[in-house]
Amino acid sequence: MDCIQEKNAEKCPCTYTSCDKRGACCQCVAFHRSRNQMVACYFTPEVERTYDRSMKAFLAQHR
Ligand code: SF4
Description:
Helices cover 41% and strands 0% of the residues.
């Protein structure tokens, strides 16, 4: 299976555009999961812009 990083990056909502994992969703998930975090696409645009990827921030946006 070919990596479709460039295609994924076109739809990626993460505003940290210089990240080398941008569009490489498997690497993105692994990176944040290892830190007990969620990836950018699980956050509202307002929360995503804070770069707080914590579970606490994820849950707080749904209260
Ligand atoms: S969510 Fe994190 S790992 Fe994924 S593209 Fe954004 S900054 Fe990079």
